[in-house]
From TrEMBL:
It is found in: Cell membrane. GO terms for molecular function: GTP binding; GTPase activity; signal recognition particle binding. GO terms for biological process: SRP-dependent cotranslational protein targeting to membrane. Coiled coil: none annotated. It is a peripheral membrane protein. Its main location: membrane. Residues 130-320 form the SRP54-type proteins GTP-binding domain. The lineage of its organism: Bacteria, Bacillati, Bacillota, Bacilli, Bacillales. Keywords: Cell projection, Cilium, Flagellum, GTP-binding, Membrane, Nucleotide-binding. InterPro entries: P-loop_NTPase, SRP54_GTPase_dom. It holds the Pfam family SRP54. This is Flagellar biosynthesis regulator FlhF. Transmembrane segments: none annotated. One of its GO terms (cellular component) is plasma membrane. The gene is flhF.
Length: 333
């Protein structure tokens, strides 16, 4: 058995095409409206897409009603979780063994195993030799607070020699916020009003174990993932860290990624996990953009709400969130 999709201008045309090619044995799983073509979102054409279960030998294709309903509900949950359409389409194929009764595992088990396989890059913290971390992200995404959490975690739990720099001079509150944290942690803090100031600050802190640089949301990435000379005898490795609040829209985050001009940020820090009902955005970024997670935050306490997630914990939380959200069944059945 296989799952196939047919598109046509009307539902009647789609059904006629299915009957012509698959016969009367095809089982219609669901149908939905899709939009093709166009330019920059304009002039798209509306079509009806019908998904059917067919047997390769045109024998009777039957499915258990409960399995069928579970299948449809989970696909709706995944779509409504913000998971990218390309991933949802792949999952339709992955769940086929369950629909046709070839698997003894539950849908949740099949999904859990599939997501773990996709997360083939290891969730890790930054490498020891990566001492200069440049943080960027949307305004209001918790970037400055996140930097404070990382600094506190490194100083209080590891005894790391940390320094802070900010180039975010457009927001007086951001400067004051980091100043308060640096005073509380007894670590140095420098405001860089220009690239020249930044270079001098980096040279000043060249001997520190870790330097965290807070960049304002509209600033271009000054130092992508490469080594650069701090002085004649000091060469260090830098890394870009993209701060992504889970309250963001996937399309907006993709626009942010374009600012890197093909040089993707090395890792992500995920914020506002406690303010979202789904980690669909996170899985899109990890699977489709190959971005590993450095840290996640799920509150405002410093540094208690900062943690390093595992693949297992990410997938488990995501599927749990999907189960807790009843599907709206927007797909037509």
């Amino acid at each position: 058995m296989n799952i196939k999709k047919y598109r046509a201008t009307t539902i009647q045309q789609a059904l006629e095409a299915i009957a012509s090619k698959e016969g009367n044995e095809a089982v219609i799983l669901f149908n939905r409206d899709v939009y093709d073509g166009g330019f920059l979102g304009f002039f798209t054409k509306k079509q009806v897409e019908v998904t059917v279960l067919v047997d390769d030998d045109h024998e009777a294709a039957t499915v258990n009603e409960k399995q069928w309903n579970d299948y449809k509900e989970w696909l709706v949950r995944l779509e409504e979780s913000g998971l990218a359409q390309s991933l949802c389409c792949e999952i339709e194929r992955v769940l086929l063994p369950y629909v046709r009764g070839d698997s003894s595992h539950s849908i949740e088990h099949l999904l859990f195993q599939w997501f773990l396989e996709q997360l083939d890059h290891q969730v890790r913290s930054f490498q020891a030799k990566t001492r200069f971390l440049f943080f960027s992200g949307p305004s209001g995404g918790g970037k400055t607070t996140c930097i404070a959490k990382i600094a506190a975690h490194e100083v209080l739990t590891k005894g790391t020699n940390v320094a802070l720099i900010t180039t975010d001079t457009r927001r007086a509150g951001a400067i004051q916020q980091l100043k308060v944290y640096s005073d509380a942690l007894h670590i140095p803090f420098q405001v860089a009003y220009s690239e020249d100031f930044l270079q001098k600050a980096l040279q000043r802190f060249a001997s520190y174990d870790l330097v965290l640089v807070d960049q304002h949301s509209e600033q271009a990435v000054l130092f992508p993932n490469e080594t650069f000379n701090m002085s004649d005898d000091v060469v260090v490795e830098s890394a870009n860290i993209l701060v992504v609040p889970m309250t963001s829209n996937y399309k907006d985050v993709k626009q942010v990624l374009k600012a890197y001009q093909g040089r993707q940020p090395l890792q992500m820090v995920i914020t506002k996990v406690d303010e979202t009902v789904s980690l669909g955005l996170l899985l899109n970024l990890m699977i489709l953009h190959k971005l590993p997670v450095m840290y996640m935050t799920n509150g405002h306490s410093i540094p208690e709400d900062l943690f390093v997630p595992s693949h297992t914990s990410i997938v488990s939380l995501y599927l749990q969130q999907c189960k807790q959200q009843p599907p709206s069944m927007k797909r037509n059945t």
